[in-house]
Amino acid sequence: MAETASENVTSGAPVPAEPQATGYSWYVLSVLVVVYILNFIDRQIISILAVDIKADLGLTDGDMGFLGGAAFAVFYALFGIPLGRLADNWSRVKLLSIGLTLWSAMTALSGFAYNQVTLTLARMGVGVGEATASPTAYSLISDYFPKRQKATALAIYSSGLYLGGGVSLFIGASIVETWNRAYPAGGPVGLVGWQAAFLAVGIPGLLLALWVASLREPVRGAMDGAPTQGSPTPFREFGKDLSMIVPPLTLLGAWKRGPAALAINIGFALAIAAFAWWMIGLTGNLPQWSAVALGYYAVFSWASGLRAHDPATFRLIWGTPAFICTTLGYGLVALAAYALAFWSAPYAETVLGLPKQELAFYLGANGAISGFVGVIIGGRIADALRARNPAGRILMIIFGVIAPVVPIWIGYTTDNAALFYVMNFLAGLFGAAALGAAAATTQDLVLPRMRGTATAAFFLGTTLVGLSFGPYMVGQISDLAGTIVDGKPVGDLRTGILSLIGVAPIALGLLIYAYRAVPRAEATIAERAAGA
Questions:
Q1: Cβ atoms of 454 and 317 closer than 8 Å
Q2: For the purposes of burial, counting CB atoms within 10 Å of the CB of 68, is it exposed (0-12), middle (13-18) or buried (19 or more)?
Q3: pLDDT in tens, 341-395
Q4: At CA 434, angle to CA 432 and CA 435, rounded to 5?
Q5: Using H for helix, E for strand and C for coil, what is the string for 311-323?
Q6: Cβ neighbourhood burial of 389 (10 Å; 0-12, 13-18, 19+)
Q7: Which of 200, 205, 282, 409 gets the most CB atoms within 10 Å of its CB?
Q8: What are the Cα distances from residue 44, in Å, to 12, 53, 201, 343, 527?
C-alpha cells in the first residue's frame, strides 16, 4: 500500500480526498440522540412503574416481565424488518418522524390502560413505532460519518439508550409520587400515578417529531464513495416485506415461491407452535410464548422470502456466520442489560426496601452515567482496536460479556444499599462498552444499500433474544423460586437476577467464533454479494 501511495505522488495522480464529517453531521447526530433518549424514556418507564402496575392490575413477576419484554420486543423486532427495508429505499427523515409520532401517541395511550390486555396492546403499538428509530438513525449516521468515525458516532447515538433509561426512572418516580399525593383517590377520569406518568412522557414526542422532520436527507452511500439510489417503488417493496412477516400472508408468499417453500414454512410453523405449547404448559404464561412463537415464525418467513427476492442481502446477513454470531453474542449481552434495566428498580424497592424516589435517583443516575461513559469509551476503544485488527471490535464485545459477571454477583447478593448502587453502576458501565463495537461490526459486513436491513437484523438479536427473554426470564425464575405469603405469591427476584450469569459462557463461545470469522467475511463482501 505504501508503494501505491508513493507511485500516486510521483506520477502526480490526484489522491482522493478523505471524506469528513461536517458540523451539520454533528447537529444531525445530536438530534438523533435526543430522539433516542425519548425512545428509551417511553420504553423503560414501565420499570419504575412496575410495582404500582403489578399491584393495581393483579399481575405476577412473570406477567410484568412479559410487559417489559416480549409485548414490546416482538413487534419492535418484526416491524423493524420491513421498516428497515423501507429505510433503505425511502426518506429516512420522513420515516423517523412518522414513527416518533406513533410511538409517542401509543405511550400516552398506555395511561388509559385498565388491565393486562389493554396495556399489552399499547406496548405493542409502542414497539411498532419505535421500530423506525434505529434503522433510520443507523443509516443516516453511516451517510453522515466516514468509516473511521462510525463506531464513535454510533456509540454517541447509543448513549441515548442509557440517558433515556436513566432519566425514565427519575421522571416516573417523581410523577407517580406527586400525582398520588395530590390525588390519593385517583385524579381526573380516575387516573392514578402510573397512568399519569405514561401520559406525561408520551405527549412531548409529538412535538419532537416536527423537529426531526426538518432534517436534511443525505445522499445514500456518498460517504463510502458509492452513491446509490433507493427503490423507485419503496412502498411496493415495503408491502412485499410486510406480507412476508404477517400470518397468514406468509403462507401465500411461501406458496408463490413453490410447493416446497410452502411445505417448509408450514413445517416450521407447526414446530414452533408445538414448542410454544410445551412452554406454555411448563410456565403457564400464554402471552409470552405466543408472542415469541409469532416472532420467530415471522422472522423465519421473512428470511426465507429475503433469500428468494434479494439473495445478495440474504447472503451477507443470514448467510454470514460472522454476522450471525456477532449479533447473537451481543444479543446475550443485551439480555442481561435489559433484564437489569427493568428489574433493578423493582428489586431495590421490594427486596432492599429502598424508597422509590431515592432508588430512582441513584439508579437513574447510575444508568445514565455508566451507560453513557461505557458506550462512548467502548466505541472509541473499539475503533482503535479495529485500526490494528479487522476483528478488534469483537474483543470489546467479549469484554462486555465477561466484565459484568462479578459486579452482578456482588450487587445482587448484598443487603448494603451503597454497595448495590456501586456494583449496579459497574455492571452497566462494562456491559455498555460492547454496543458500539457490535453495531459497527454488523454495519461493516454489508453493502451501503443493505444497512437499514442489516440494522433490523442486528436488532432481532437485541430484541427477540435480549429484550424478549431478559426481563421475562428473571420474572419467571423469580415466580418459580418464590413463596406464598398470606395466600399471595411473592417472587424471589434475587435468584431471578443471578440466573443471568448463566448466559455468559454461551455468549463467549459465539463471540470467539466471530473473532475468527470477521476478517475474511469483511474482505469478501463484494464477491459474496455477487454470489461468487
A1: yes
A2: buried
A3: 899 999 999 999 999 889 988 998 888 888 888 988 998 899 899 989 989 999 9
A4: 75
A5: HHHHHHHCCCHHH
A6: middle
A7: 205
A8: 57, 14, 11, 11, 42
